[in-house]
Amino acid sequence: MFIDWEVKGHPIYPSMESGQTIAYISDIGAFGLKPLFITGSVITTVSLDLGLMADRWLRHMGRLAPNTSLTQKALSIIAIVLAVAGACGLILLSIFDTYHHSRLHDGLLLLFILGYILSAIFLCAEYQRLGIHYRNHRSLRISFWAKLTFIIVEILLAIVFASTSYTHHRNVAAVIEWVIALIFTFYVLSFLLDLLPSVRTKHHVPQGYNSDIQDMIEKGTRRHRRGDGQYETPLTNDSAGNNGPVANRHSAGHFYPGRQSRRGLRWLHF
User: Fold this and answer.
1) Tens digits of residue pLDDT in 51-73
2) Model confidence pLDDT, tens digit, residues 169-207
3) Which of 39, 62, 116, 204 is placed for a possible disulfide with 86 were both Cys, Cβ 3.0 to 4.6 Å?
């Protein structure tokens, strides 16, 4: 949309105020590129919300580091609900454009910004608690700091955007809006970092599997499933055909956690 505005020689749209020379995203979306504006809004928000839902599902299934408390699960669910609200705000504001529905458009813009900022706050809180429990997972710390940076920067920019819009410094506000949109794009892409550890390849075990194995190493137990439940038994080298405690086998650089039928992990060499 910005390229289109540049190529057309910075046109002045009917929705722009007197003296305004830099168009808002909504100004461009209201004239000529409305189908692109709506399509882009839908793809962006739906992709982000599906990423949040995938994160919740993969932690539930154990392919990502599982939540260790009900508080973490609640934070994740609240983050998803707020993200859905933010998605509705962006999609609807692209439909109810700033020229024909000015007040409604501004209200939906507020819903979009608040929805995703609050969602990021709750998600950041979840990752902070996950990072405390899974200190060996560097990706959780990186994701936490990335989301915290997004929250701080976007809040500051939103304040500047609101103040400059209210004082009718439209050109400054338009520039800030474009910057906010760009940073939001990087926020969407940051979820690739969150979901990538769940990928299972020949040389990579999903993050959640590593977490389970690490827990069993620390407790010296083997996890079994019987019926609908799970139970753990002490892990000794007798199961591998040797005598002595598991520490001797583990110190040699090998560990056999036994079969985990739910997750399909039979053995792993460290």
Assistant:
1) 999 999 988 888 888 888 899 99
2) 989 999 999 999 999 988 888 888 888 777 765 555 666
3) 116
The answer as to whether 106 is a domain residue is: yes
Is residue 55 included in any domain, yes or no? yes
Tally of domains in the chain: 2
Question: Can you tell me the distance from the alpha carbon of 16 to that of 138, in angstroms, rounded to the nearest whole number?
Answer: 47
Encoded tokens for 12: 């002045």
Last residue of a domain, one of 163, 198, 233: 198
How far apart, in Å, do the first and last CA atoms of the chain sit?
50
Find out whether 80 and 53 touch, Cβ atoms under 8 Å.
yes
How buried is residue 258: exposed, middle or buried, by Cβ count under 10 Å (0-12/13-18/19+)? middle
Q: Are residues 176 and 243 in the same domain?
A: no
Share of the chain above pLDDT 70, in %: 74
Decide if pLDDT at 241 tops 90: no
For residue 244, the enclosing domain spans: 220-269
Confidence class for position 209, pLDDT limits 50, 70, 90: low
Q: With beta carbons less than 8 A apart as the criterion, state whether 21 and 11 touch.
A: no
